[in-house]
Amino acid sequence: MTSVLSGKKVLLGVTGGIAAYKTTYIVRLLIKAGAAVKVIMTPAARDFVTPLTLSTLSKHPVLTHFTNEEDENDTWNNHVELGLWADLFIIAPATANTMSKMVNGNIDNLLLATYCSAKCPVYFAPAMDLDMYKHPSTSANFDKLAAYGNLMIPAGEGELASGLSGKGRMAEPEEIIHFIEQDIQSKLVLHGKSCVITAGPTYEAIDPVRFIGNHSSGKMGAALALEMVNHGARVILIMGPSAVKVEHHLIERIDVKSAQQMYDEVHKKITQVDIGIFSAAVADYRPANPVDQKIKKKADTLHIELVKNPDILSSVGALKNKPFLVGFALETENELVHAFAKAEKKNTDLLILNSMRDKGAGFGVDTNKISIIDRDKNVSDYEIKPKSEVAKDIVNEIIQRVL
Ligand code: CTP
């Protein structure tokens, strides 16, 4: 399952408390989530966990001092660059001493200098003995650090290294990662929004072994689903037969075969969502009388009567409380004229136009070239791009209009 931490650059600041040994697990979990990790330790932290362990796990040298003394060139560890590199900074464990210095701008080591230079969100996970935790100066520091915009990952209750029991235990590594993931998730622009996406082809049965279908791969719909969840939306992906794999904890995938099944699944869900994106290549017609047994070869010609499938997008466009609606159109001639008519007929808020005349657009290929038409008939033309990039353009246009 993809984590919101995937691809993020994370600085982990380790200070001198016994909970420092747990940072090995934090590094492991961050790497597993797909983050790049650099570790800064205070001099005191090196007594609790070895830099070698953390550098091996993080795959980067661990930094403590402003200069690398062992290096004959004595290179400078630039705290400003480190701060700029990071997408987020986690200080765990955060001792009472380090928090006090963070509050007062007392910069006597590389970790504190980097903290003061960092522009990214800073999370801190306090760890100390229960009486220190309860001390008014500690509470005051918590409040001040929060007022500066830092995010506290509260300590838990339990057995402490001193042998006492109470509040002050650093949150467990899994809790720290979960807290950060939830926090990032809750700040994404589409957090709280939900979406139905149709994708792929439909297969219309002729007999038990044959069908009428098309070459749609489902790649465009899958890319859209991932882009929507990357912005925090919850997605219900209603997918015709497709080999494309899409896995994300915010994506519920419902596999269907025929247009009628897709129609039924869409209408079970559509009233619960804010946005509908209809990227499926739905068969317009289906065999009128599919048979239960395989059709035997007999006459020289065979006629299959076809009947119209329900138009799923139009049926949603006609709903009284329709969601924000995005449709697709594939045209071969008079593209804009046909697209304007389609947008009006199907009542779309955005219509994504693919022209079959454009090389690298359409079915089976990894690229697409689109124009986006809004309700006021404004047309935005985009360059030919990979489908993942096209999905970004479409989702950006949606975001501008639904927020
Ligand atoms: N669509 C749908 N249900 C159908 C047919 C199409 O939901 N039975 C949706 C597609 O997912 C797409 C849009 O309608 O978002 C446009 O489909 P398209 O095939 O281009 O248009 P049609 O209405 O089928 O018109 P035509 O084939 O005549 O151009």
TrEMBL record:
Q: Which domain of life is it from?
A: Bacteria
Residue stretches making up the Flavoprotein domain: 8-182
The family database entries (InterPro entries) matched by this protein are listed as: CoaB-like_sf, CoaBC, DNA/pantothenate-metab_flavo_C, Flavin_trans-like, Flavoprotein
What Gene Ontology molecular-function terms does this entry list?
FMN binding; metal ion binding; phosphopantothenate--cysteine ligase activity; phosphopantothenoylcysteine decarboxylase activity
Q: Where is the DNA/pantothenate metabolism flavoprotein C-terminal domain?
A: 190-400
Give its E.C. classification number: 4.1.1.36, 6.3.2.5
Q: Which GO terms describe its biological process?
A: coenzyme A biosynthetic process; pantothenate catabolic process
Question: Pfam families attached here?
Answer: DFP (PF04127), Flavoprotein (PF02441)
Alphabetized UniProt keyword annotations: Decarboxylase, Flavoprotein, FMN, Ligase, Lyase, Magnesium, Metal-binding, Multifunctional enzyme
Q: Which cofactor does it need?
A: Mg(2+); FMN
What are the boundaries of the region Phosphopantothenate--cysteine ligase?
195-403
Pathway assignment reads: Cofactor biosynthesis; coenzyme A biosynthesis; CoA from (R)-pantothenate: step 3/5; Cofactor biosynthesis; coenzyme A biosynthesis; CoA from (R)-pantothenate: step 2/5
Q: Which Gene3D superfamilies match?
A: CoaB-like, Flavin prenyltransferase-like
What is the cofactor note? Binds 1 FMN per subunit.
Region feature Phosphopantothenoylcysteine decarboxylase, mapped onto this chain: 1-194
GO terms for CC?
phosphopantothenoylcysteine decarboxylase complex
Function text: Catalyzes two sequential steps in the biosynthesis of coenzyme A. In the first step cysteine is conjugated to 4'-phosphopantothenate to form 4-phosphopantothenoylcysteine. In the second step the latter compound is decarboxylated to form 4'-phosphopantotheine. Catalyzes two steps in the biosynthesis of coenzyme A. In the first step cysteine is conjugated to 4'-phosphopantothenate to form 4-phosphopantothenoylcysteine, in the latter compound is decarboxylated to form 4'-phosphopantotheine.
The record's comment on protein family reads:
In the C-terminal section; belongs to the PPC synthetase family. In the N-terminal section; belongs to the HFCD (homo-oligomeric flavin containing Cys decarboxylase) superfamily.
Q: What is this protein called?
A: Coenzyme A biosynthesis bifunctional protein CoaBC
Q: What is the lineage of its organism?
A: Bacteria, Pseudomonadati, Bacteroidota, Flavobacteriia, Flavobacteriales
